[in-house]
Amino acid sequence: MIEYRIDRRSGVATYLQIVQQTKQALRLGLLEPGDRLPTAREVVEALAINPNTVLKAYRELEREGLVEGRRGLGTFVRRTLGEGKAADGALRAELAQWLVRARRAGLEQDDITALFTSVLSGSDSEPNQGDEE
Amino acid sequence: MTLLDLRGPVRVTIGLHRRVLWAALALVLLAAIALPAGRWYVQSLAEDFAATGCKVENTVPGCGIRVRGFLSRSLYVNRMFHYIGLGMGVLPLVLGAFVAGPLVGRELESGTYRLQWTQSVSPARWLAARLAVPAAGALLVLPAFVLLAAWVRRESLDTWYPLQWNELPVYQLIGPVSVSYALLGIAVGAMAGLLIGRTVPAMAAAVTMVGIVTGALVLIRPRLWPALDGPSRGGDAGIFSGPVDLSAVLHHPESHFWPLQLVESAIVLALAATAIVAAFALLRRRHR
Amino acid sequence: MTAAIEAHGLGRRFRRGGWALRDCSFRLPAGRICALIGPNGAGKSTLLALAAGVLKPTEGTLTTPPREAIAYVSQDKPLHPQLTVAETLRMGADLNPGRWDAAVAGKVVEGGGLDPARRVRALSGGQRSRLALALALGKRPTLLLLDEALSDVDPLARRELMGALLATATEDGTTVLMSSHILSELEDACDHLLLIDGGRVRLGGSVDDLLQAHTLVSGPISDLAPHTVVTARATGRRLTALIRPEGPVSTDGGGWQVEEPTLEELVLAHLGAPGVPALLTTAMEAAA
């Protein structure tokens, strides 16, 4: 079962962090259709947050058709995101190798994040470039 | 408010003060054993003394030490009875101090009353439970103790040191006034504790108030029932050596024991009831 | 929506004169988790003690659930020092017959590894807080009042205890009113906010509604009428202001930025501007 973590300094609303982490888990294949999300009580107890925040996040996920609430049973995953392709082992391994090289080149965590996001946003507008940058 | 409602708070009160309550019970038991034991001791002394052939009235040579030994031992037992009687006289003060201090004042001082009140115990039930424990103790234990003391006193009448009904320590040990004063102590203690709300000052105030009331009533005790003309035939002193008896023209015969005890008890109980009503009124005025 | 707490013109005077709380009117709907925020001495503790029924209002009325359904942890967490942890919990069971949930209370105590045989007087401040909270949660209240209840608990334990109490509240639909002078302690846990200052209510409502009712604007210095200005601060030729928009905020003037404020900005702005009229959103407005 998914365990949420809340970063209080991120500036992102708590309910959005739950939504994002659920989606990420769906993309990575950590959550699959039929899986049950933790109950509001479980999330509230683990994170010490207001129950409405959890319910709001689950409503948002429900609105997007990703999960469905079944009365008295809990909230269940309906479909995955990106067919769970992010869980692809080969791509992941390649990225891990690249990360080793970046570290060797002396890049720090923030450098790596900056590089990755800039390439990512660059590749949106110019899909054929950016590989070698 | 029913007795059933008080079950929880009473159990808690006993739990909080069980050491003091055990100690009090032990003291009472000790006194209750000492009374008949003293009586049997004197009896056996008298039998042993009779066996020696000596007589107290006309001491023959060789009997002096035996007579003195017999009389002084008998006197010790008489003294013990007096001390127990004095203890009974102090009991209302002790009860007042206990209720005013540990039972009520300390809870107000330390704030634990708030814990009780928000654990579903209303202020009135809280106070009632704190009064019920010592009051039940007094009502269950003291009457039996008084009956025992009255019997021991009657048995003492044919000894060399008879216990007179109108001696101060004896009078308050063998009649219902003892129970009434105990209840007064509890009631005044509750009032003082609530009024002052701090442990030590409340205890001091309770002792002072109970002391003043007791002292005043002891002084007017001889006037609580019409005395008879003429000096007492027995020439008794003791509690009735007050203004009534000073001129030796008035006295109380032993038949006045019950009227005197009942009138005094009624007065003391009325005062106790007033203090209780005042305590609950005070509680209701300050807290909802 | 039924109200868990409803106050009308509530006031409480200090014993030495002056008002701890005055003209307090609001309602807290059932099932809400409400932060009671205000600087030290604002009247938070007084309001909570009034709601808990350990203080009596000087004026006005206050409607709450019955005493049996309210739990209250006051700032000083009074506990009986002579009892052990286990005895304290047994007291909770004795005083809340038919209500007490030993499992809930036991879990809170075990979470901190408290030895049941330990006496309360030997516990640390944080451990006492934990025990006091166990007593409060064990009675499964419908209204839970917490007065800086977790302030002396270490951060890790605070999160665990807050989680436990919010989980219980989620399950039972408990209404919670908890105070702190530090907003960040409560911000994640609460859906409603009651801000008091100087004994008066300044803001009250659901957090979302309150945030929506205010706007943070910055732009060239100009007249902000007809909006209610809570605070305005000029830096150079630019003006930053927290306003309550009366109607749409026009951003045509050029260079205007409009943002939703954070809860902290809202609270600080109101504490810095005592003259600004109080605002209660419909959720917390007392019925006329």
Protein chains sharing the most extensive interface: B-C, 23 and 33 residues
Number of domains of chain C: 2
Oligomer: heterotrimer
Strands across the major sheet of chain C, in which order? 5-6-7-3-8-9-14
Give the topology.
The complex is a heterotrimer of chains A (133), B (288) and C (288).
Chain A: H1 14-27, E1 36-37, H2 40-47, H3 51-63, E2 67-70, E3 74-77, H4 89-104, H5 109-125
Antiparallel strand pairs in A: 1-3, 2-3
Chain B: H1 7-16, H2 18-52, H3 64-110, H4 112-117, H5 123-156, H6 168-171, H7 177-196, H8 199-220, E1 228-229, H9 243-246, E2 250-251, H10 257-286
Antiparallel strand pairs in B: 1-2
Helix pairs in contact in B: 1-5, 2-3, 2-5, 3-5, 3-7, 3-8, 5-7, 7-8, 7-10
Chain C: E1 3-13, E2 19-29, E3 33-37, H1 44-52, E4 59-63, E5 70-73, H2 85-95, H3 102-111, H4 125-138, E6 143-147, H5 155-172, E7 175-180, H6 183-186, E8 192-197, E9 200-206, H7 207-212, E10 215-220, E11 228-235, E12 238-244, E13 257-259, H8 263-271, E14 279-280
Parallel strand pairs in C: 3-7, 3-8, 5-6, 6-7, 9-14
Antiparallel strand pairs in C: 1-2, 1-4, 8-9, 10-12, 10-13, 11-12
Helix pairs in contact in C: 2-4, 3-4
How would you sum up this structure, described in words?
The complex is a heterotrimer of chains A (133), B (288) and C (288). Chain A is mainly alpha-helical. Helices cover 51% and strands 8% of the residues of chain A. Chain A has five helices and three strands; from the N terminus they run αβααββαα. Chain A has a three-stranded antiparallel beta sheet. Chain A starts with 13 loop residues before the first helix and ends in an 8-residue tail after the last helix. The C terminus of chain A is likely disordered. By secondary structure, chain B is mainly α. Chain B is built from ten helices and two strands; from the N terminus they run H-H-H-H-H-H-H-H-E-H-E-H. Chain B starts with 6 loop residues before the first helix and ends with a helix. Chain C folds into two domains: 206 residues, P-loop containing nucleotide triphosphate hydrolases (Rossmann fold); 68 residues. By secondary structure, chain C is of the alpha/beta class. In chain C, strand 8 and strand 9 form a beta hairpin. Helices cover 28% and strands 30% of the residues of chain C. In chain C, the strands form three sheets. Chain C has a seven-stranded mixed beta sheet, sandwiched between helices. At the A-C interface, helix 2 and helix 3 of A face helix 5 of C.
